Amino acid sequence: MDSDTLLARITDYASRPNPYPLYAELREAGPVVWQAGGNCLIGGYHQIAALLHDPRMSADPRTRGEMTHKPPFLRLDDPEHHRLRTLTMRPFGPPHSPRRVDSMRGEIGRITEELTETFEAGRQIDLVDDFAYPLPVAVICRLLGVPHEDEPLFRAWSDAIVASADVRPDQDTTDTDKAGDQARIEMGGYLVNLAEQRRGKPGDDMLSAFANELDPALRLTQEELAETAVLLLIAGHETTVNLITNGVLTLLRQPEQQDRLRREPELLPRAVEELLRYEPPVHMRERIPHADMEVAGTRIPAGTSVILVFGSGNRDPRRFPDPDRFDPTRADNQHFGFGSGIHVCFGAPLARIEAYTALGALLPRLATAQLVQDPPPYRQNAMLRGPRHLPIQL
Ligand code: HEM
């Protein structure tokens, strides 16, 4: 089959349950695979790693000439990215000792207990709606200082923003983009308003910390606060849910590994790393060269949309022995689950705690559980890939 239609085939909804054979085809087709639309795909582990650390690569959509508002720092380049990332991380505590996140452990345990209380044998649950979605949402709301009861309001915004951020090579995206922009403005306004209410009467949440920063050099502008708070709320909404759901799906498909984790719970942290490699929540990210450059002997002109397929790099046999095997004891597991380089996920410590707690609480209940539907129905999104529902008979 033609390699220049690979992106269209990968993003085709029919590929959602299992994109991995297409990723193998991508790695086979070459280090740089041009697509009919003029963009290119990179699926090899070593090329992806090199480009994520290459200062010539921009994360900013404006580098390919797209006229857009200033994006959140996920899509800005240094030095501006660095300034905003550092300011945003301040409430998380000093680097490498995330105090605030650590203090969330007890809370995460309590929320997990509450959600799993009614998971009794004989009952059918939807793991997504009954657990994997409400847990990270409650956690990020608590951390940011957003009233949990407003969740239905920002779930709609979150859906619209995530739909507009997906990779959709052969679709007219005008309407989705417009809806995404509108949702971003409304959600940003809502969060700025909440932050304003905390000025002078701070709680222990991030919006309070942003609103009450006294040092003008460390203060976010209103626009930056809106973009950053939206980014955090969306990141808390849309990724951890997939890690937990993909994790349970993988374990229900591989009962012998599940038994092993019940017998050796100390393997859980490594199993979570392996899940981030084997079934990552984020499958691809875009970068754009500032200037013409060469990758593995191929010239890539400035402004080209280069799609780095993390999900493929994670299964590259040149990096990971036996890559299609889920091995919770795998060592030397530097996956792209949280990205790499300057944009590496800073929510990773929080996401890891959530995943250990969730899987630790679910494992005893999964021993006799059955998947009701395999493969389960997936969400539309190809970039943030995961099941929309996961019905399980306990
Ligand atoms: C399992 C859950 C998560 C996964 C798999 C994940 C994955 C990622 C990945 C792959 C990136 C890099 C994107 C790129 O290079 O373009 C990223 C960045 C980011 N993530 Fe996460 N994430 C998760 C949870 C979270 C949480 C809970 C938060 C917030 C508390 C968060 C906040 C961020 C932010 C702010 C960035 C941008 C960092 C930057 O540009 O410097 N993430 N995440």
UniProtKB/TrEMBL annotation:
A GO MF label: monooxygenase activity
Entry coiled-coil feature ranges: none
Keyword Heme included in the entry's annotation: yes
InterPro entries: Cyt_P450 (IPR001128), Cyt_P450_B (IPR002397), Cyt_P450_CS (IPR017972), Cyt_P450_sf (IPR036396)
Gene3D superfamilies registered for this protein in UniProt: Cytochrome P450
SUPFAM superfamilies, A to Z: Cytochrome P450
Keyword Manganese: no
CDD domains: CYP164-like (cd20625)
Keywords: Heme, Iron, Metal-binding, Monooxygenase, Oxidoreductase
Protein family (similarity comment): Belongs to the cytochrome P450 family.
Name recorded for this polypeptide: Cytochrome P450
Organism of derivation: Streptomyces filipinensis
